[in-house]
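During the first year of the project, the team set up a workflow for recording each protein of interest as an amino acid sequence followed immediately by a discrete structure-token representation. This format lets reviewers and collaborators read both layers of information side by side without switching files. As required by the reporting guidelines, we include two representative entries from the current panel. The first entry is reproduced here exactly as it appears in our internal archive.
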Amino acid sequence: MPEKHNDQILSRSPNQFSKKFQTILYSEPKHLAIMGFYLIFATAIILGTWSFLTTVNKSYVIKGEIIHLIPDISIRPNHSFEFRRHTTHIGQVVKKGDILFEYYDQEKRIVPFFSRTEGSVSQKADLKQGVLYPVSTEVITIRPEEEDTAVRLYIPDNLLNKVKIGNKVIYHFNFSFGPKNKIIEGTILTEPMLNNNQYVVEAKIDDESLKFLTEQKIKLISGLPVTTEMIIGKERLISRFLGVKL
């Protein structure tokens, strides 16, 4: 005769399981859910409080590039004079003490004008002999050999009212160098100016930052792209997350 099997159908009743399995199946998940809820709630409170108390720079990211400014030095006698002749030509390199031009004094004696700076002659004024020129008339322009490193920033129209002379800026380059926490800083030098249908401003790099870049053997060539973080104030971290002012 075939052997009979005592089949038992399991129901959802907890009495069908051992007490330990009943505890795991029916009790612990509820406890874990409650604990998870309180953990998430406490974490949200802590993060919310921290973000409310923490302040960060309120800034805007602007694209720019390195430029080199060569400030011309205008040579202007501090007295009236009668011009005689130039003794240099455009492009000539002059040193301190070199004669730049000659003029007549009140007694019609020829007086040389000596250079007080070094550089190359970039411009010469077209002055006439026999004419008495007033004080501070420009005679010649000297361009120093050393260039000033600056940054040209391209300002979007929606940020024009945010840009002010003296705004602090932080520069970010497309390469890494030195300590990661080293910040390259500077300031805005000019008001926005329209140049080829694009508003631009010029900014400087602080001397300390330039010294650090030099120590890292980094040469800032003209046209090198740079991303600039223009700082206009402080804001709460939670305001940045929510996009509202608190």
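The second entry, processed by the same pipeline in the following quarter, appears below.
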Amino acid sequence: MANTQPSRPAISGFAAIIATGACAAMIFNTLPLFLGVAADEYQLGSQGAGWLGTLYLGGFGLSSVAAAWLIARVNRPRLGLVLFLSSALLLAVASGTDSRLLFTLLLVGVGFSFGALYSLSFVITGERPNPTRAFGLKLLGEVLLGAAVLAVVPVFILPHYGLGGMLAVFAALAVCGTLSAPYIASNAPARANAPGLGGGGRLPRRAIAGLAALFAFTIGQSAVWSFAERRASFEGIDSEAIGFALSAAAVAGGLGSLAAAWLSNRLGQLGPLAATALIHAASLILFFAGRDPWLFGAAASLFMLAWLFALPYMASIISAADSSGRATSLVAACFAFGSMAGPALAGQLVARGSFATLYVFAAIVALAAYASFCRLAVPASARR
């Protein structure tokens, strides 16, 4: 008798990889605009906007860690469906509330749903036969969706519907994401099984150093990115120009990730990281001096280009430092918790100092991170 059960994919399709990653990351990838609009809607100062971002990313980070345990024990297509629908429901309710407290609580709930969904996207991406290519496409999908939102929402949604309209757009995108759930593999392929956090032994010192550098790097990057819109508004740049600049920056970030995937290790790791550090420094100088739309747009684009070009190299260096795979599994946690700390720290630096203080801090942190990764990129034999 023929099997009438619907067949499940052996590996997750690119529709699922792109949809889970893009939907889960869409608030983070539009964080400067989102925090700016929320701050205006609820009359929040710099510190209040920073803490709002931190609370969202706190829920995102805690959920991303807990999801590693959950993903291995439940039906993954059903989990993806539940996460898409729960985030859509919370966003829809948040779009209609006037209470600042309720809005904050709902936003933390959205962070929990999106954090678990983002962890799921990392897991299924790593199971593809060519994970480097899959990661490049996943990251491209994330930044392109962010770019589309940044291009459309400020022009067509915010003038008429405000923050509620923006949240409604996010909810609609999450509902559309449910269509990708059937393309999520129910179980990991046997070849993808690797030691996880439960493995014995201590992490190698090189892996710990890489994770610490990535965590610090992410704090600095998210601090600058989350207050990019506030910086432009402070200089009197109009909202449409800001939206266009941030959209162009998101596209530049996608091009950076694709360039890293194409270049890979053809020139080694040290050279590309050193070149990226120079681009990163140029972006911070332009942010510091950017008092017109063109300088701000150039700063944002170079910043995102450097960020998303460097990340694949940093992750690969961490992976090479620990053959067990445990360090690699902590990379997503570094992203989440580094991004959680960045907005709150940025709010404190801007409120107690200035935007210049923020950029000096980001430059110091980035320099230390690049120096650490450049050292780790050099083989141990060459350092003797």
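For the second entry, the following points were noted during internal review. The mean pLDDT is 84. Residues 131-177 form the longest helix (47 residues). Both points are flagged for discussion at the upcoming steering committee meeting.
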